[in-house]
Amino acid sequence: MIPTLIKPFRGLRPAPGRAPEVAAPPYDVLSSDEARERAAGKPWSFLHISKPEIDLPADIDPYAPAVYAKAAENLVRMIEDGVLIRDAAPCYYAYRLTMGAHTQTGLVASASVACYDNNRIKKHEFTRPDKEDDRVRQIEATNAQTGPVLLAYPNAPAADQLIAAIAQGKPASDVTADDGIRHQIWVCDDAERIDAITRCFDGMEALYIADGHHRSAAAARVAAARRQEDRILSSDYFLAVIFPHHQMKIMDYNRVVKDLNGLTADEFLARLGERFLVSPSCDAVQPQCPGEIGLYLPKRWYRLNLDPKLFSQDPVAGLDVSLLSEHVLGPILGIADLRRDKRIDFVGGIRGLNELEKRVDSGEMAAAFAMYPTRMNQLMAVADSNQVMPPKSTWFEPKLADGLVSHILD
What we know:
Layout: E1 6-7, E2 11-14, H1 19-22, H2 32-39, H3 47-50, H4 65-80, E3 84-86, E4 92-99, E5 102-112, H5 113-117, E6 121-122, H6 129-142, E7 144-145, E8 149-153, H7 157-166, E9 173-176, E10 182-188, H8 191-202, E11 207-211, H9 213-228, E12 237-244, E13 250-251, E14 253-257, H10 265-272, E15 276-281, E16 292-297, E17 300-306, H11 320-329, E18 344-348, H12 352-361, E19 367-370, H13 376-384, E20 395-396, E21 406-408
Parallel strand pairs: 6-11, 8-12
Antiparallel strand pairs: 1-5, 2-3, 2-21, 4-5, 4-10, 5-12, 7-21, 8-11, 9-10, 13-20, 14-18, 14-19, 15-17, 16-17, 16-19
Helix pairs in contact: 4-6, 6-9, 7-8
């Protein structure tokens, strides 16, 4: 039997009125110390499941077996105490994120591992084995997928309308997090509407992973292992939130470097002038178009505009982050391996240009580069061409919360 691209599932959700106590930032945006601080005095925070080392001695290895056992123990406790409850029948869920004037509404569903394996759910990043192993251990220990994969679907007005129809009336969960982002969940348990949604998505050519490559890869590994043991069932699908691509917001993902590779500031600017139009700026430079980069040296901003002859039509080489690597980081600064070189660091756009100035003016870094954001159509083009993006190419905001809907593996 050919699996459908998505299907409904029996979501594990906060009991009525408990969502504000449960909802937590994604597990991978907080350090253990930050998670411990955020969960202090909050016994039902989902951080006790997603970052369970916070309930163990501070010096414990976050990948120790005891950590995953603690996640399972905490999940069972939250279910037994009625903080989390499971829907009686398979459902879909609408999930609305609101950040200031920006709103996006998507569908919480279980997505097919088989479609992931055959690249109908498309990837654009390499994964690291250690991070995959961590998620595999978390899934196996809890017998649940507790962190959703962020997916995008291409232009599909019918899907937009079906999801919008769910997101009506009073939501089942409505949480405004500490960062001001509002998270709302509506439940769809109507059989006819569920069938219409399943058929609509099954008619799509592909879905695209926006964020969560390690979570989806781990789910696929767990499913493959369970097939070997004849334990298939719900492990053949993974927890996902799927948004229309035109609603998704990618912010800049900026770069800071520790030194100028032996060059003085003037020598560095002269080298840049061989490939860019370099213009001093009295104000901080937030790039406004592809090929434009903001450069910050101590107390000084510059606008860099790449020579149009140096643009590339290749989906990966044409990304602004690739252009920076091709024309600045590699040939001038000698930074070739963005994954391993300790001379470079990355700053998500949500932190603003002030963060770039702070890190340079403090002397920690020698220069900062403010980037024009990758666009969703670029991400999809890279995935369609079966290529991968450079590290730290996309910073999605707003972030999904953990704990509002989880997927138990029957």
